[in-house]
Sequence to fold (390 residues):
Amino acid sequence: MKRILFVDDEVQILKSLTRLFIDTEYDVLTAESGEAALQVLENEEINLVVSDMRMPFMDGYQLLCKVKELYPKILRVVLSGYADQKIVLKALQQNIAKLYMFKPWNNELLLKLVEQIFETEDLLSNSDLLLLINNFAELPTLKSSYQRVIGMIEEDAEITEIAREIERDLSISTKVLHIANSAFYGVKTGSVKQAVTYLGLQNIRSLILTTSIMESMGVSGMGMDFAEELWNHAFLTNKVLVFIFEKCLQKKVPEVASSAGLLHNIGVVFMLQSFSKNYIDFRNKAVKEGFDFIELEKAQFKATHQETGGYLLKWWDLPFPIVEAALYHHNPLDERIVNSELVIGVHIAQKYAWDMMKVAQLTRFFPETFVKIGLKQSEFEEKLSTVTWK
Fold:
């Protein structure tokens, strides 16, 4: 039985939550403060902590930071008021919390949220996936230079200082300049500082993260061309994703998920690194014979690139929406998805990115996803055709 700990300094809220979950399969415990919650965690097996943000003495952010430090396998969710939006966003960005819901909550949605997060966690812990992952002596780790730059961005350091730190890493600074000077932006500069200023810190954060991950899974030999193709597709997918949100949905891509398009196919890079030529031959066979690549992967390797990608992004402690985008981007209508609009956006974006690159599709596309987010496919394609893409 899964066990949930609810933390809130308002007793009536804890009573309401206890009543809500009384007929479910979950065992519910409560705590009226951060200090009390830590005592419960010290003595009880807990799977999920759901905490308010605004509490006296130890607030919810401090509590969830402690939970992450002391019990990293416990899932963490924020249930707080609208007035706490800034601190909630910070908790999501730093992966202190996986998800959030604002008060007053909708009972049905809260029950569904808990169910979905547990189901996704179970999917990422299935035995076949773990067997595949555990066959490798050491999982790739992110570069310390990435951690330093991201830390500086989160601490609102000056652009000059951030640019100077980027310049210390040749591979990252080269990638930043490459993107800034590409046809997508066309800055035409050799200055890292100017490139950072033009691209913006959120784009820089995403690019540095992706570069660090791609480098941590170095691919050699004949796989290098394919890896470069994957990078180009990832970047184009992110551009199309931004287009979908800003030009079609009239909103911004959620800040915590700004790297979702860039990282959605990171599992393919892992599979390429792990199985090398066999994986390329396998993909070529799928293209030639017209099979669905997800089904073939499952049959051949007992796990898919979606699952390995989701696992790695979780391993690297990235925000839950980015993990979901990697895990479900070929199954965008899966009922376990919490961030449905984002995952659908990535699903659509990656399909049209491959089309624009004139690369054969290896997976099923779900046109009904347009309806799900309130778009017409024909109108989307017409808008997309007016943009100059490389």
Summary: The mean pLDDT is 86. Residues 72 and 307 are 20 Å apart (CA to CA). The domain at 3-123 is CATH 3.40.50.2300 (Rossmann fold). The longest strand covers residues 75-80.
